Amino acid sequence: MNLPSITIKPFGIHAILMEWPNEVSESILDNILLFEKYLKHKCLESKDWETVPAYNSLLLTNRHLVIQHDVFGNKLQDWYADSKEIKPSKRYLWRLPVSYDAEFGIDMKEVSEKLGKTPEEIIELHTSHVYTLYGIGFLPGFMYLGGLPKALELPRKPSPRLKVRQGAVGLAGKQTGIYPQESPGGWNIIGNCSVPMFDVTKEQPCFVSVGDKIQFYQISRAEYDLHKIEAEVGIYQPEKIEMDA
């Protein structure tokens, strides 16, 4: 297996950044995740290390260690060259419910006009595609999902809102995503997901992982309200399908 070339540079005294070719590519993301697994199992024994994969980069941080970037960077290059045979981790397809009710889809009319499609066509396109989770950030649990149909691509709003509702499902550029909590935001909102995406009380606060797949499906407002109640009492479980490695 030919490995893509990487560059390594300092990211403060406690961190180092590895960068792959600057493109949105599932093969590059797969390579990053494989190397992250190799580092965790073979190289970075201390639990003080944290790794953050996203798109075409892998950030390594250690708050208790001042990193000698030249020395450690050479180690990373050597480890990367030796990591070819690592087996991939399990990946999952998560099916997440979305209500596209008018109360939630506050930008649906504007999106419909800009794209020249009916709301029903937009919903059909949005729910018929499977998205790849390329990164988690901006907010804890905010998923950056690639694979948006070209017919749904449109820019962020020129002026972000001061408040976007928790669970809001939006479109921006070539991506779609869910706001895990109320926050400012500039994405075009077309619905709301009834599944809590981040729960600080759980051992794994965000149940999805970079490299997982997401598919949305439409639910009614009544189903949305039921899911919210089930989530509040801790009995709602999103649909999870193990994918072939």
Automatic annotation (TrEMBL):
Coiled coil: none annotated. Its EC number is 3.5.2.9. Signal peptide: none annotated. It holds the Pfam family CT_C_D. One of its GO terms (molecular function) is ATP binding. It comes from the Bacteria. InterPro entries: CT_C_D, Cyclophilin-like_dom_sf, PxpB. Residues 6-208 form the Carboxyltransferase domain. SMART domains: AHS1. Keywords: ATP-binding, Hydrolase, Nucleotide-binding. PANTHER family: 5-OXOPROLINASE SUBUNIT B. This is 5-oxoprolinase subunit PxpB. It comes from Costertonia aggregata.
